Amino acid sequence: MTGATLRGFAGVGKNGGSLSLQAPAILMNEPADGQVVTTDIAGKLSLAPEFFGNGGFETFSLTGLGVALDKGGSLGDAQTAIAVARGTVLSPMSQNWASLPGGPVYLAPEGIRGPVNLTLKTVGPLTDINHDELGNSVDLVLGDKSEIATEAGGKVALTGGTIDVLGSIAAPAGSITVTQSAGYASSLKQPTVHFGAASTLTASGTAAYKLDLFGERYKSDELDGGTISVSGNIVAEKGSQFNVSGSVDTIFALLGTPSDGFPSNAKTDLVSQTKESSGGEIDFSGDRILFVASTLLGGAGHFAGNTGTAASNGTLTVTTKRGGLALDVGDNVLPAPNDPVLILSAATPSFTYDPLKNEVTDATGNVYGDVNGLGQLRFGADIINGGKFATVKLSADNRGAIQVQGTVSLTADRQITLADGG
To answer: What is the mean pLDDT of the chain?
Structure first.
């Protein structure tokens, strides 16, 4: 694909095209030679950040196979399936034809143009005709100090056998999904979805915009916080952050009347008001492992002195699938109905994790969990209460029990639900 040109432009006000790419491996980085698209001898496809803003596409879906090619084009060693290199910033934007197809392109103002959606995924273990595994990588890595940032209402989805998030993802008032590949996490006892200490996922509320009759952009509304969903064998280190808070800003939503008595819908004729938006939803779904020491933020937007806001705080859902998974990999014995498949304690348990695929240990180096692998899904009430959620749901989702360890106090504005599916 070196030197290739791909186009998905639409007319003004229309949605851009969709682009799906599959390659032996895909790397997003800042190339030293200035090339936007390159392919090396091992089959690795390298994409510069400009690739996600120059073609007019509104949806990207990239799949890495996790293999390298030898000089003859045959499969060689494994290589990381999908990676965003350290310090790389992806800020995809969708352009349109300014008038006629094939003519000049036009970038509408932020908030007026549609957001770009990005999906990064790996495949499962590849096999040959004899069903023997080929040893390909199933890893997806978002490097240190890297960033994926869509615009308001955008969607970012990461799916892989193992996922290592060390940078940041932002989708204001949109959705962020980090998903262990189906069936893969249930066969492993190691963490497979990892959020480093400097990682941030943000889907907080933000302003919405419109154009007046003179083409001037103005804030017309304040959007609620979006959703962040994470599933698999999850470890989120202290210092990481998940943010679906609402927001507050001055918007122009009420049509005023100019001096001549005729409303013109011009920006100068709109009456300002302060608008607050509600918090969104954070959802953790753990298979065999769940350790979260992050800062969780789900409160509504508020301005100073307001006590009568209609905006509400968000929702936190913590679910474990452990009760439906065998006690030991390879057997069919499920946890008993009273086995603790999720442990709720007053404080987030102290744990050590380094690096991906290692075991989670306590402060003395002992591995969490018993011989059956139970006791590796834990959550602290302290990070729940600090998040300002209106609704908190903790569910076993199948067999097994939620164990409340010690004296625990939970706070929520509206509803607390424990073990509704246990």
So the answer is: 84
